[in-house]
Amino acid sequence: MSDKSWLSEIPQLDRYQLLSIRKTLDGAYRSFSREYGDSIESFFDPLLSFLIWFEKLLLGTPWWLVIAVLAVFAYAASRSWKLTLGVIVAFFMIGFFGMWDNTMRTMSIILVSTMLAIMIGIPLGISMARSDRVQSIVTPILDVMQTMPAFVYLIPVVMLLGIGKIPGVIAVIIYAVPPVIRLTNLGIRLVDKEVLEAATAYGANPMQRLFGVQIPLAMPNIMAGINQTIMMALAMVVIASMIGVKGLGQPVLKSITNQYFTLGLLNGLAIVALAIIFDRISQSYAKRTLQNFGGH
Amino acid sequence: MSDSSNENKKPLISIKHLYKVFGPNEKKILEQVKAGKSKDDILAETGHTVGLSDINIDIYPGEIFVIMGLSGSGKSTLIRHFNRLIEPTAGEIEVAGSDVMKLKEKELQEFRRNKMSMVFQRFGLMPHRTVLQNIGYGLQVQGVKKAVRQQKAEEWLKTVGLDGYANQYPGQLSGGQQQRVGLARALCTDADILLMDEAFSALDPLIRSEMQDQLIELQEKLHKTIVFITHDLDEALRLGDRIAILRDGILVQQGEPVDILLNPADDYVEAFVKDVNRARALTVETVMQPQICRISSETIGEAVLQMRKSKHDYAYVVNDDGYQGVITQDTLENVEKSDYSNEIDPSLLEDVPSVQNDALLETVIPDMLDNELPLPVLNEDGEVEGNLCRSTLVDVLSEQPNVEEKEKEKEKEKSYV
After folding, report:
1. Disulfide engineering: A168 pairs with which of A245, B68, B142, B244, CB 3.0-4.6 Å?
2. Architecture of domain B285-416
3. pLDDT tens-digit readout, B216-238
4. Are B126 and A217 in contact (CB < 8 Å)?
């Protein structure tokens, strides 16, 4: 024990050991993806064809019909003429500046990702709320998902599935799903104990309690989670474009590499417009469900 | 309603040796509780809280049974054992002959749907449902068709006096109105047993007494079995046919309101009882003295004889038509012997008003002050069954009634007779 260097320097694996660890892990994962890559890809086939179908649907529909449908949605959710008018003007401007097709592509992938995130997130949030053990397992995973740089988990996804829409959707979901899980969990845990007790006292079974009391009362929180999920999905658009997802992200990427300031700005503004519209629509819907609650 | 009839009846709810310990090792700690270790010691040594300890209660059909105690005494824990919202550590719970502890989950749900309904302190209404949907909730859970439950809910809405609020949300109503909805929801399932957990405690005093009136009025029509939790003795005395008092999870005293008021079991109950307005809580019957001199003779001569035999210097004159008035010894002594064969003339009588035995003391005070002589107490048939004199009333109403002394006095009087 004459060597005291560990006092001044942190003990460290030597280069060859590190290299062998990396080689083993990479090799294992590579052989895993060679072995199962195809079957996993075919597992996602239905999703891929749905994505393509949805994108074609949005691109194939005449612009005025798309705007009309969006305007109806906006009005139905918010009952506000101002917001509806804003939606119409924003989309008209997007088209006017030549970004219509890319916007439709982005919208299709965002909507599908959000839908999937909700379909995964709400049941997971519910099971977290029902069991402290599930919560203690899922919470650290969510922490990792939210803090791990997106590029890091893009690597294995791309290794496994190549570039394209599916890895894009997966990346967007990984990034965007935590808020809806967390807020569903929180919302259900915050449901007034006495109300839940009342349901139990009247003989409600677990399903009746969940769908009749817990989910409706957690709805404002769940809606806030969905809203956050949409926002985060939109934030992923540019990163997703790096693995081949078409849409507003690609021109932005192109303008970064080529220093096209105006092109970048316009596409960036289109993303912002989408974000604001989705945010306002989902928030005003949440607010309207909240109005029935306890307001004097 | 009275205890004498209960003895022949079977209890609807019967709780035996019920224990509840809160904590991870309840079964183990139970042994210590049974061995008689105190609640504080157990908490200090093991971190377990003793919620309830050896509770035995029988509740009979049609009565309002009040469980009373300060916060932390375990009353809310106890009421949640009736429908197993809380699982006991040990003990038996029997409702209408069936052992609630043996019910499986599905059976327990059925039991909760049909046998009991519950009213909560903070109402427990569902904010996302309208008033009408809230009232019909119990029926909806049972799977009753929408049209039927809506119709029933509307009837109960009317009964509790909330006509026209059907499509409001609970958040738009005042506290009292919300609790009416809670009550209507409980009644809407037609369950025989109503559990009311501090149902009126969150309401302000005026609304609270209004709700108490409404409950009493409804109970006269519906004859439910009601378990009512409260920390307010006035409320307990007003509503309860019988009252149980809990302290630190132990049942300190159980009995009719009068027993508790006049014979508190220990200092805790006495402290409770001290602030009660007795004039409003007690009836004449409970404090009257049954030893009186009645004169039912036809003639004055016999009346004089009867009067001499009694130790009183006045007597109540009674004939076939009931109570006539009071005659004093002085009046009788002054009558000429020659008139002894005459009938008792009304002019000899003092006009003293009578009181009914079920009247509250409060209501007889004015008559009491107007008349020197003790007032005769009549029962339902109009017969004189006792009297009420000023000194008794003062004794009962004065702040520190010396209960033991009064008991002794009663004993003494009995031995005289």
Report:
1. A245
2. Roll (3.10)
3. 999 999 999 999 999 988 898 88
4. yes
